[in-house]
Amino acid sequence: MNIHINQQPFSVPDAATVTDALAAFGAKPPFAVALNGQFVARGEHASKALAAGDKLDIVSPVAGG
Amino acid sequence: MTSTITTADTLTLYGTSFPSRVLLGTSRYPSLQSLSDSIDAARPGMVTVALRRQSNTGEAGFFDVLKRHGVALLPNTAGCQTVDEVLTTARMARELFDTPWLKLELIGDDYTLQPDPIGLVEAAGILIREGFKVLPYCTEDLVIGRRLLDVGCEALMPWGAPIGTGKGVTNPYGLRTLRERLPDVPLIVDAGLGVPSHACQVMEWGFDGVLLNTAVSQATFPPQMARAFALGVEAGRMAYLAGPMAERDSAQASTPVVGMPFWHQDGSAA
Predict the structure, then answer these.
(1) Which of A34, A58, A61 sits opposite B62 (nearest CB)?
(2) What CDD domains does the annotation carry (chain B) (predicted)?
C-alpha cells in the first residue's frame, strides 16, 4: 500500500506498522512520530498498524527561538 | 559594607530554580561554533529548541552541541497555528527531548507573529493537565494573562515587541501594568528585544527574566552580544532589587546648600 512519510511517497506491505515505516524511511535517532497529525508514542510504534493513504511525520531536533 | 540583596536570588519556575535569568534561543547563528560560544558567554538558564521533519539536510551536530553544554532544554511549538498542531508538537517534543518544559507558541497572525490568545488559553489548559510545564508566549494583555494563570500556568512570557524586530518594548505602559497587576507571577519578556539596554530596562521594571534569540544570533559577534545581554540582565535585576529612586519633575540639588559662603545666601535666613 502507498503512504506518505515526511511528504514523500512510500510503498509498504499491507500489514506494515509504524516501526516498519521508520525502517523503510531510514529514520535516524533521535526522532518522534505523528501519524495523520496525532502523536504516536515510542512504545506504540511496533503495534500501530498503518492504512493506505496514511501520512507519517518523523521529526528531529532543530534550532529554535 | 553590608548588603541586603540575597545571593540566593534565582529565577524560579514551577518550583525549579535556574542559574540564570537569561533564556537563549538557538536559531539563526552563523555557525554551530558561534552558538556554542554564545551559550558559554551567556550561561543561560535554558535554551530553546524546536523540531522539524527529519531530512538528510538536517542540522547535523546541533543536538550534540547542546548535550555537551548540559543546559536545560525548552522545546517550543513555533509555527503552530491551531490547538491541534500545538498539542501534537508538544507531545512529540516531550518524548524527543525528554522534558516536560514547553514554550507554548500558537501564532494567530502570520505578519506580526502575534499569539492567538483564545487558542493559547485552550491549549495551555490541556497541556497543563497532561503534566507539561508550560511557558506561554503571550502579549502584554492582562486579562489573557489571568486566563492563562486560571488554567494552571505558573509563569507567563509576554512579548516586548514582535519576534525578530529588535525594537525593544513597544508598549511600556501595558507591560508595566502587567508587572504591577501580577506581582507574584514569574514574567519573562520574550521576543522583540534588540540591545542589552532593552533587557536591562525590563529587569529594572521587575521582570523575572528575558528570552533572546535574534538579538544575539544576528549580532556581528554573537558571543560578545550574548555576554553583553547577560550583564545587562544582571545589572537590571540588581537595580530592581536595590530599589530605584522615585522620579521627580523638579530639580533637587544633591550637594548640600546650607553653609554656602557666598553673598546670595545672606538674605535668605529671614
Answers:
(1) A61
(2) ThiG
Instruction: Specify the pLDDT at position B256.
Output: 84
Helices (H) and strands (E) in chain B, counts: 9, 10
For the cut 80, the answer to whether the pLDDT of residue B244 exceeds it is yes
Domains and CATH numbers, chain A: 2-59 (3.10.20.30)
Our CA dihedral for B230, B224, B202, B22, rounded to 10 degrees, sits at -40
pLDDT at residue B3, as a whole number: 47
B53 touches chain A (CB under 8 A): yes
- Mean pLDDT throughout B44-69? 89
Sign of CA dihedral B80, B85, B89, B91: positive
How confident is the model over B183-204, as pLDDT tens digits?
Answer: 999 999 999 999 999 999 999 9
Give, for B123, the enclosing helix (H) or strand (E): helix B117-129
* Nearest CA-CA distance, residue B247 and chain A, Å: 36
Cell of B146: 489571568
CB contact under 8 A, B58 and A34: no
Q: What is the pLDDT of residue B106?
A: 98
* B58 contact residues in A (CB cutoff 8 A): 60, 62
Domain ranges of chain B: 11-242
Fold held by B11-242:
TIM Barrel (3.20.20)
Mean pLDDT of B73-81: 97
Q: Is A9 an interface residue toward B (CB < 8 Å)?
A: no
